[in-house]
Design goal:
The structure holds two protein chains of two kinds. By secondary structure, chain A is an alpha+beta fold. Chain A has helices spanning about 5-15, 75-90, 120-135, 200-205, 210-220, 245-250, 255-260, 320-325, 360-365, 415-420, and strands spanning about 20-40, 40-60, 60-70, 105, 140-160, 165-185, 185-195, 230-235, 280-285, 305-310, 315, 335, 345, 350-355, 370-380, 385-400, 400-405, 410-415, 425, 430-440, 440-450, 455-460. Chain A has two domains: about 5-220, PmbA/TldD superfamily (PmbA/TldD fold, 2-Layer Sandwich), CATH 3.30.2290; about 230-460, no CATH class. Chain A is about 20% helix and about 40% strand. The longest helix of chain A is centred in the N-terminal third of the chain and has 16 residues, at about 75-90. Chain B has a six-stranded antiparallel beta sheet. A five-stranded mixed barrel of chain B has the order 7-14-15-16-18. The chains are: A alpha+beta, B alpha+beta.
């Protein structure tokens, strides 16, 4: 128990002592361990912990927020008074009221098999050494390897003036490998990661050696890469990391906070065709073990499988408590925050395109000329214009229906609403890829996924003319 | 507020460092800060966040092995546990004869006034009024402004102490505040966005009008933007874009990258890496820089480091560990990402300069034909500071006949960092001190590839 029930009642009542429509306390305790191998050595093992609580008072359209790293009753009540004083200074305050928590939900989403706390430090370190060995083995061009292991255990408690209290424990484990290959033309890089909302059993699904080999092969292949082309071309995106395209091209634009402010290209378009009929876009925070999954969101609501675009038609946006209250509907379980020091906002969980019917190899075979993007890095979008970029970190030319020469790194640029109508083939394969999503200064873990698919035209930002 | 800035944290940090046993080195870093964030929307406060945070990071080196632990709260028991964790973590690292902490040196800290008491002394209601007014004024400023997404005021006041068992003791405090506004301009079915800000160490120097005008100008001048035809051309970079570019180059100048074979500049000291006449200096003792600080984050007094002179690479920046690896002295360039991680070598306050005194108009007129780049996207996804490959999304205005012409969007510019540094043809004198580790100014680069239609 992070904070006792009677204290929660007092804090929430204190938060509404000066009036206000809604009050909430978010308590968080997080422990993490990370280790880095670089230059052939385990450089450092680092462990740390944080804890604290944030108290929010909503009054009309205004929110007051105060937080403390001290979970004593005295300190929590002081934070509640601060939040209350902030809210009191704003318009629309209603009468003070007492709060008593009446409901309790405890949810433990991730079916963690091996708690990382139960695994010895040497076993975690050993993973890194194995990654270093595997990346260098048989590849003389690999000049540098860095590998990072990380785990975090996050306990959260959310209680609100709605009388509801929820708790969750989120365990995440990850390993990433970055390699540099050195050739006549300079250095090239390769990266691969595994990251899931599970415990140490994550390494049963993919071995450290496999991850390291993928990263190393990527770097080595790029040594012979030619500069990426420039101009518009057909692009085939391999399943998995290509999902970042949809995260950027339409995901952010479907977050209700942007809709509420009339700032998204998707405002007022519910029920309209916004994409190729081959496209069904889903955001699903319930997917077992995926990087963006959780048992409750950071406002205490259950995540859900939310269909955003169905067969090309815009079906719904994503919602947090604040935006849902304004529309008198319920939250879709998308209220997230980086830590107790941050206000929650609408965020994606695992966002992906459902598989279609085409054969992935056939899609390539039926593409006379274009590029094949095997791995995408991050991306960025302007939600108002819909223009977005995403970076390719492993890509090839497609010539006469065959994957040929590797290409150097470059960004692709497109316009979300335009690109979504230009998808003419969706394969039956599927993969989800972990990532970190940044918005308004806050980072949260997310998943992106899609089947292999083809875009009939996107602008490639390379240098070859 | 004044409670936050007592110097107890120096005593706390030293008390941790003093516990070093024979053959052991201990370094304690303690930081404390208070922040205020106010967002205005539609004439009202949308949210107000009042926050304080503190924490400790402890590094231990023993038998050439290093361990680290941190804690996000500062009670005696937590500190004790953190030290014991850091010590325990030591045994799991590999031996590295270069793992180092700073030793006191003869460099004295440059005295600078980095804390503005007016920030803490100004009432929250006054700060609120400032940002609500900015939001209202911006809505009225131009009939094409369709929406003011957000107007934000924020300030940070913080202090940090570093002590280690080699005798290093450092304390510094600082503050800054900023005000920003994001707008959507529209005409017909076209919408474009712009963000403007004003950031200063002193509250009195905040200028909401600059933020407003900048946001509105940026959004309005992009109205009607189309996708340009692809070709090779010169580009003129807005000061904010230049600062972004220089920060990417900064990682190739870090001793950490250089000594581990991750820098395209490794082994090139004495060679020409930039256009003639250009210099690049990293100077955190320049109090105009928002990142100026009395000490680096291992506790050595900050100093001026000349990295490029007349286009020739002079050296790199180092913390204690990377300096040992390179066989040189630390340049007092240790930087941390807060209390939860150890120090790493990085540039802190870069400024590019040439002897010229061009204005933006001169640069555009001299370039004659090309693209003025107002903003870039995808820097983290399309720029590889190791290989040097550079590709970013751009919004901007074409330059024709020496003047700004039609706006463009949904295009990219690409080259390599190696080539770009050698192709800087103009540097204007419009220096802007921006958040981050590099100042911005207008520059021109020849021969980049513009990709569009």
């Amino acid at each position: 128990m992070l904070v006792e029930r009677d204290i929660l009642d007092k804090v929430l009542s204190g938060a509404l002592a000066g009036g206000g429509d809604f009050a909430e306390i978010f308590v968080e305790e997080q422990g993490s361990t990370s280790a880095v191998l670089d230059d052939g050595r385990v450089e450092e093992l680092s462990t740390g912990s944080r804890r604290g609580a944030g108290i929010r008072v909503v009054s009309g359209d205004a929110t007051g927020y105060a937080h403390t790293a001290d979970l004593s009753e005295k300190s929590l009540l002081e934070a509640a008074r601060t939040a209350s004083a902030i809210a009191k200074g704003m318009s629309g305050s209603s009468a003070p009221r007492e709060v008593a928590i009446s409901h309790m939900d405890t949810v433990n989403p991730s079916t963690v098999l091996i708690d990382p706390d139960s695994v010895s430090k040497p076993r975690k370190i050993e993973l890194l050494q194995r990654a270093d060995d595997a990346a260098r083995s048989g590849r003389s061009a690999i000049s540098q390897v860095s590998a990072a292991y990380g785990e975090s255990k996050r306990k959260i408690l959310v209680a609100s003036s709605d009388g509801h209290e929820s708790q969750d424990e989120q365990i995440r484990t990850r390993l990433s490998v970055s390699c540099i290959a050195l050739g006549d033309g300079g250095m090239q890089t390769g990266y691969e990661t595994i990251a899931r909302t599970v415990g140490f059993e994550v390494f049963d699904s993919m071995s450290v050696e496999e991850i390291a080999a993928k990263a190393a092969d990527r770097a080595v292949k790029k040594l012979s890469a030619r500069p990426a082309p420039s101009g518009q071309m057909v692009a085939v995106l391999a399943s998995g990391s290509g999902g970042v395209l949809f995260h950027e091209a339409c995901g952010h634009g479907l977050e209700a906070d942007h809709i509420d402010k009339d700032a998204s290209v998707y405002v007022g378009r519910l029920g309209e065709t916004v994409a190729s009929p081959l496209i069904t876009l889903v955001d699903d925070g319930t997917l077992g073990g995926e990087w963006g999954s959780y048992g409750i969101d950071d406002e205490g609501n259950l995540p859900a499988r939310n269909v955003l675009i169905e067969n090309g038609v815009l079906a719904d946006y994503m919602w947090d408590v604040l935006r849902a209250r304004k529309k008198a509907r319920s939250s879709s379980g998308n209220g997230r925050r980086q830590s107790y020091r941050h206000l929650p906002m609408v965020r994606m969980t695992n966002t992906f395109i459902l598989p279609g019917k085409d054969d992935p190899d056939e899609i390539v075979a039926q593409t006379p000329h274009g590029i094949y993007v095997a791995q995408l890095g991050g991306g960025q979008v302007n939600i108002t214009t819909g223009d977005f970029v995403f970076g390719m970190t492993e890509a090839y030319m497609i010539e006469n229906g065959r994957i040929t020469e590797p290409l150097r790194d470059a960004n692709l640029i497109g316009n979300g609403p335009d690109i979504l109508t230009k998808i003419d083939a969706v394969a039956s394969d599927f993969a989800v890829f972990p990532g970190t999503c940044g918005k308004d200064g806050q980072s949260v873990p997310v998943g992106c996924g899609q089947p292999t698919l083809r875009i009939t035209g996107v602008t490639i930002g390379g240098t070859a003319q | 507020m004044s409670k936050v800035l007592n110097k107890d944290i120096v005593k706390m940090a030293c008390c941790i460092a003093e516990q070093a046993l024979p053959g052991e080195q201990i370094e304690a870093y303690i930081s404390r800060s208070t922040t205020l964030d106010i967002r205005a929307f539609d004439g009202e406060v949308e949210h107000l966040v009042s926050a304080a945070s503190d924490g400790v990071g402890i590094r231990v080196i023993s038998g050439h092995r290093q361990g680290f632990a941190y804690c996000g709260y500062l009670d005696d028991e937590a500190i004790k546990k953190t030290l014991s964790e850091a010590r325990d973590n030591v045994s799991f690292a590999n031996e590295d004869i270069h793992a180092s902490m700073a030793y006191p040196d003869e460099v004295e800290a440059t005295q600078m006034e980095l804390l503005d008491p007016a920030i803490a002394a100004t009432a929250v209601s006054e700060k609120t009024r400032l940002v609500v007014e900015l939001e209202k004024e911006t809505r009225k400023s131009d009939p094409r402004i369709r929406q003011v997404d957000s107007a934000d005021y924020s300030d940070v006041t913080g202090e940090a102490a570093i002590c280690n068992s080699n005798g290093v003791q450092a304390y510094s405090e600082g503050s800054y505040c900023d005000i920003s506004v994001s707008v959507i301009a529209g005409e017909g079915s076209d919408s474009q966005t712009g963000t403007g800000f004003s950031v200063a160490r002193k509250f009195a120097l905040l200028d909401p009008k600059t933020a407003m005008n900048d946001a509105v100008t940026r959004a309005v001048r992009l109205l009607g933007a189309g996708k340009p035809a692809g070709r090779e051309c010169s580009v003129v970079l807005d000061p904010r874009v230049t600062a972004t570019l220089i920060s990417v180059v900064a990682s190739a100048l870090s001793g950490e990258y250089v000594t581990k074979g991750r820098s395209f500049l490794a082994g090139r000291v004495g060679e020409k890496i930039m256009s003639s006449g250009l210099s690049l200096v990293d100077d955190p003792t320049d109090s105009r820089a928002l990142s100026a600080d009395l000490y680096d984050e291992e506790g050595l007094a900050s100093r001026r480091n000349e990295l490029v002179r007349d286009g020739v690479l002079m050296g790199f920046v180092y913390d204690s560990t990377s300096a040992s690896r390179a066989g040189v002295q630390s340049t007092a360039s240790a930087v941390r990402a807060g209390y939860s991680s150890g120090p790493v070598a990085a540039c802190r306050a870069l400024l590019l300069s040439s002897g010229d005194s061009h204005t933006l108009e001169d640069v555009v007129a001299n370039v004659g034909d090309g693209l003025y780049v107002q903003s870039v996207t995808g820097v983290h996804s399309g720029v590889n500071p190791i290989s040097g490959d550079f590709s970013v999304g751009v919004e901007g205005i074409m330059i024709r006949g020496g003047a700004l012409a039609e706006p463009v969007r949904e295009a990219t510019i690409a080259s390599t960092l190696q080539k770009m540094l050698l192709s800087i043809t103009h540097v204007a004198n419009d220096i802007q001190w921006l958040p981050g580790n590099a100042a911005g100014q207008t520059i021109a680069i020849s021969e980049m590839v513009l990709s569009g239609n």
